[in-house]
């Protein structure tokens, strides 16, 4: 392994950029994250350029209890009976508003006036990132994703009771609401349609420092890397009028990413590593549809207004085992990561219409978390005489559990090249 490590340092051709998509615009509730990565090789003026493509799809989600459910039911059934409660400027002459008022006056009972939404989510995603080593272990990195997000086959099921107790699925006011549902949404600037989003995600620029320590006796080496930087909101933000729309990045929020990676080698082939990191997000004032009654639930809220949004900070940790070049240029890795995004803090600008406690009760603004298993295999084509080291890899990120997340696993491949400049 020591001989192999010396070859890595001199030629920079083995597993430098590697399979791990070290883009910080990585973890999102709608799909399994990529493996965060290994420590960077400490080679002055080493250049790495990598590109990957991944795809996945699902019809299911994990709800707030970690149970599987229909895709768009991750926050629970949509309470339509109280949809109009607290909404300002309703008119007693408008058929839509009259229906909302009459519906809220009916007695409440389990399931009545609730809809369960379902759909199909798919993602295609490319990641491109460039890393340049400097001197004394310092390096910088630039990365950004290109995404295509789709939600289609959107439909709903009526959960209202079928018995003879009133109110039930056949109650006239409820049937009137269902018939007027498109007009209700249009009246309050909402659209129920399929989602098709394509474009770049958020761009990240990182400055890092890495160290490869080999003066050891019991193990082969110890590697450590620290990174911090800026996440610029270059991705398209969510359209608040499209009910199930998704942002291509972190919805316009500036972020401050930070990461630590560490690993050690033993037995001339085994690498064991772990890491942790996060993104601290800033505040942003934006237009939102917000709850006006504590019992409202789901994506659909009629009242719209400005609010100061402090996006919840995101934290993650990972661990892995890697068989490093156990068969010529072939390596294999199995890893695990846990990610959690803290609750968003929403502060409405108009507190006469929106109560902060009611807005904060929205399940959509609560924390989400995800557990993922990462599998990866790579073949490195570098030979001892080469100063340019190409490598290809395949990966699969399997989400095994979560809360308030789409149940989307992701598979794909990557090509990378590392260049050891001789100065």
Outline the structure in words.
There is one protein chain. The chain is mainly β. The protein has one domain: Porin (Beta Barrel). It is 10% helix and 48% strand. The chain has five helices and 20 strands. The protein has helices at 2-11, 95-105, 172-179, 181-187, 356-360, and strands spanning 46-58, 60-62, 68-70, 78-79, 114-133, 138-158, 195-200, 203-213, 221-232, 255-266, 270-281, 283-289, 304-310, 314-327, 330-341, 345-348, 368-380, 388-403, 405-406, 410-420. A twelve-stranded antiparallel beta barrel has the order 1-5-6-8-9-10-11-14-15-17-18-20. The longest helix has 11 residues, at 95-105.
Summary?
With 423 residues, the chain is mainly beta. It has helices at residues 2-11, 95-105, 172-179, 181-187, 356-360; strands at residues 46-58, 60-62, 68-70, 78-79, 114-133, 138-158, 195-200, 203-213, 221-232, 255-266, 270-281, 283-289, 304-310, 314-327, 330-341, 345-348, 368-380, 388-403, 405-406, 410-420.
List keywords for this structure.
single chain; 423 residues; mainly beta; twelve-stranded antiparallel beta barrel; 5 helices
Question: Could you describe the largest sheet, including whether it forms a barrel?
Answer: 12 strands, antiparallel, barrel
- Percent of residues in beta strands: over 45%
- The level of helicity is under 10%
Indicate the low-confidence ranges by residue numbers: 1-19
Query: And the CATH topology?
Result: Porin
What class, by secondary structure content? mainly beta
What is the CA-based Rg, rounded? 25 Å
Tell me which oligomeric state these chains represent.
single chain
Number of helices: 5
Return the domain count. 1
pLDDT averaged residue by residue? 92
Cα end-to-end separation: 27 Å
For this structure, what is the CATH class?
Mainly Beta
**What's the CATH H-level superfamily name?**
monomeric porin ompg
Q: What's the architecture, going by CATH?
A: Beta Barrel
Strand order of the largest sheet: 1-5-6-8-9-10-11-14-15-17-18-20
Shape: elongated
SSE order, one letter for each helix or strand: HEEEEHEEHHEEEEEEEEEEHEEEE
Number of beta strands? 20
């Amino acid at each position: 392994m020591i001989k192999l490590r010396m070859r890595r340092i001199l030629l920079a051709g083995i597993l430098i950029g590697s399979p791990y998509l070290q883009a910080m615009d990585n973890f999102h509730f709608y799909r399994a994250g990529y493996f965060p990565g290994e420590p960077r090789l400490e080679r002055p003026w080493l250049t790495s350029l990598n590109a990957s493509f991944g795809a996945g799809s699902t019809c299911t989600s994990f709800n707030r209890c970690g149970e599987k459910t229909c895709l768009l039911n991750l926050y629970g059934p949509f309470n339509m009976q109280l949809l109009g409660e607290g909404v300002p400027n309703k008119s007693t002459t408008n058929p839509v508003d009259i229906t909302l008022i009459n519906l809220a006056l009916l007695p409440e009972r389990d399931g009545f006036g609730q809809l369960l939404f379902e759909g199909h989510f798919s993602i295609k995603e490319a990641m491109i990132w460039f890393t340049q080593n400097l001197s004394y272990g310092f390096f910088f990195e630039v990365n950004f994703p290109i995404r295509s997000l789709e939600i289609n086959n959107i439909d709903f099921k009526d959960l209202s009771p079928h018995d003879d107790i009133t109110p039930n699925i056949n109650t006239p006011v409820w049937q009137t609401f269902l018939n007027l549902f498109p007009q209700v949404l249009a009246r309050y600037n909402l659209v129920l349609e399929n989602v098709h989003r394509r474009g770049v995600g958020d761009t990240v620029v990182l400055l890092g420092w890495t160290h490869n320590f080999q003066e050891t006796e019991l193990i082969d080496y110890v590697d450590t890397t620290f990174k911090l930087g800026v996440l610029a909101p270059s991705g398209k933000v969510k359209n608040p009028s499209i009910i199930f729309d998704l942002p291509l990045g972190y919805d316009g929020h500036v972020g401050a990413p930070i990461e630590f990676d560490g690993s050690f080698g033993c037995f001339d082939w085994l690498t064991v590593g772990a890491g942790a990191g996060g993104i601290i997000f800033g505040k942003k004032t934006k237009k939102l549809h917000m709850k006006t009654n504590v019992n409202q639930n789901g994506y659909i809220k009629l009242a719209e207004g400005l609010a100061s949004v402090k996006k919840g900070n995101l934290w993650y940790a990972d661990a892995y085992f890697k068989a490093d070049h156990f068969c010529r240029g072939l390596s294999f890795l199995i890893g695990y990561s846990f990610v959690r995004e803290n609750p968003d803090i929403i502060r409405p600008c108009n507190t006469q219409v929106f109560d902060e406690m009611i807005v904060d009760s929205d399940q959509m603004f609560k924390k989400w978390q995800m557990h993922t298993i990462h599998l990866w295999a790579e073949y490195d084509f570098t030979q001892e005489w080469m100063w340019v080291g190409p490598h290809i890899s395949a990966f699969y990120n399997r989400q095994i559990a979560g809360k308030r997340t789409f149940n989307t696993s992701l598979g794909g491949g990557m090509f990378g090249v590392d260049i050891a400049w001789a100065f």
